[in-house]
Amino acid sequence: MVSKKMLSEYARLAVKIGVNVQKGQPLLINGPVEAFEFIRECVKVAYEAGASEVWVDYRDNNLQRMSFEHVETETLKEIPSWAIDRIKYRIDKKYCVLHVISDDPDLLEGIDSQKVFEVQMANMKASNQFQYYTMNNIGQWSIVAYPNRKWAKKVFPELSEDEAYDRLWDAIMSTSRVSEDGDVTKAWDEHNREVKVHSEKLNEFNFKSLHFENSLGTDLKVGLIRNHIWEGGADKTQGGVTFNPNIPTEEVFTMPDCYHIDGTVVSTKPLSYNGKLIDEFKLTFKDGKVIEYSAKTNEDVLKNMLDTDDGSRSLGEVALISYDSPISNSNILFYNTLFDENASCHLALGKCYPTNVKGGSDMTSEELHKLGGNDSMIHVDFMFGSRDMSVTGTTYDDKEVVVFADGNFVF
Amino acid sequence: MVSKKMLSEYARLAVKIGVNVQKGQPLLINGPVEAFEFIRECVKVAYEAGASEVWVDYRDNNLQRMSFEHVETETLKEIPSWAIDRIKYRIDKKYCVLHVISDDPDLLEGIDSQKVFEVQMANMKASNQFQYYTMNNIGQWSIVAYPNRKWAKKVFPELSEDEAYDRLWDAIMSTSRVSEDGDVTKAWDEHNREVKVHSEKLNEFNFKSLHFENSLGTDLKVGLIRNHIWEGGADKTQGGVTFNPNIPTEEVFTMPDCYHIDGTVVSTKPLSYNGKLIDEFKLTFKDGKVIEYSAKTNEDVLKNMLDTDDGSRSLGEVALISYDSPISNSNILFYNTLFDENASCHLALGKCYPTNVKGGSDMTSEELHKLGGNDSMIHVDFMFGSRDMSVTGTTYDDKEVVVFADGNFVF
Fold first, then answer.
1. Which of A267, A348, B141, B403 yields a CA-CA distance of 20 to 30 A from B2?
2. Interface ipTM
């Protein structure tokens, strides 16, 4: 467990720098019951910042697992209309949202994948509007992590449960730039400036496509949408409020052209999806769609993911992170995308962020899709960066520019 | 903290004996975040008993206090329509309800009473249908307690917070008949049989009224509704499912005639209402209505309570408990009605239980009210039993029968 001081500093990071709740704005916090003391701190910070109201939705991984074990699929799939109205209400009231995640990477191991898939589909359909609300930066949102013992033991299997839990706390704090004596606001200001150097440079190049290659078998050409924007670090809502959607974050990312992705990509880290770990998987794309796939573990979960809808076989995000980056150098495999995606170049299957193209937030999903912006109910990042990754950009006048050599940015 | 074994025995008591969830029935649990381990146990027991689905609504006293400190009254009073639809949904689905209470008796001390009153009014109006659902025994419901440190320290101010917490656990376990080696099912079967002896005897007498007197100034005549029923211990839903609404419980209770209550009643224990303690209070009734009142502390809270609606100045329940009863003999003042009402004769301001009169569950509130069954949004028990309480019953043929002498049942 971290000190009270660290915990309240972390709450300040989550609420002031992460979601950046505004005076008079309501805040929704989703969080695990075990984190109630941290969440109390977050609520306190939010009221001090002038939040008009704070609502907390608590959840419990254990109850979720039990419900999958005992409740019939049809019952789990039934989303009552009040739950949909609640989502609409929160959108209308312009809530900002803080997600406190605390996943167990193997939470649903042993549960029928088809059951999990069907229930997740029902939930995604119900929360479609909320996905639109956040992915279009209408309201601020942020994701921070809170450790739990099962997750900790997965990350540090050689340690006792208590030691592992403390180590995971340390890892979360250090990657999130929270320290006993440091100034978290200053640390995040500096960090966001550093990230911006890469995104600005990439925006100047205005590449038509990127070519990824490494010795593991990745050989993938990803077209970029015309007028794409590289983003990274702090983001802005449509109304101009700065927020940090991911804590921690190291990536710069943009929008692929979902009709022009060809070749093969090989994963380099396991992916926890719907409570199960998909590991050692490979995807082959043709004209923007996955036409072949395989995985060493939980291939059926990968299959279900790819079969979600029309857009789940194409890409909505491409992100660059140097192999030599702080989270990567910690040599910790977190089994959690919030962290692992910041240690590795990654792609996301599914929906694009409309903010990654000029004017994207003003387009309908159909308009965006026509231009090459992928649409889907899912948005699932997976990691494929490696020590020997090379990335070459091609400009609109067919010049080739080396972006990555030996796993790292060359500029 | 109690042992894991005790905790799981307590969960079994709450779910199997308290709310008695049926095979194929959904269960709603309201509980405090601090109790998440106990609630997990309850959910486990519920699924083992065949519950179709278990939903948990977590709450946090600290967040409630903060919202009263920081959120405007108008915002707190606004109940979104989805919240009302959620109540309807749960009634339609025939949820049974387990309330895990863990109050801080002074939670809202220092908060403007008018603000608390207005917010509570709005909440009561919104949950009116649910009150009807439970008070008419349409679905099973039960209340159990979970300790917290502030409550514990209030009960045992001379102990350290940790010691007080452990002592409160012990007190809850022993009054609820949960022990390391005992059989909780057997203990409750026996206890319910004992309680029934008194209620059956009182039903035979079929009193027209009861006269309460003691040296503290109580001199109150409470008419009883014609065809009243004394109840106590286990109860039954309209569909015939047995459940125990209160854990613990020692009382037998019935329905006053809300037009025939006259005289003065003096409280003998403080009453925690809306997060504040009303203490040393006195009520004078005429023709069934409170016409005078006073309190040494928080008189404004008492005033607001009495002013809630038309029925909040009359009585909905009269309950008899021997002064020489287990909870009373523990000499612990719990500052919590779930416990304190079982140590003392008590009355409830507000709505009656329709099950306390023959055919009551089939009557509308208006029909019931005509006969003398009080109607209100509130139902607030308060304690007035004492060591020297005498209770005399008057039968329909004007015979007087001594029911209590020196604080105890004479039969």
1. B141
2. 0.94
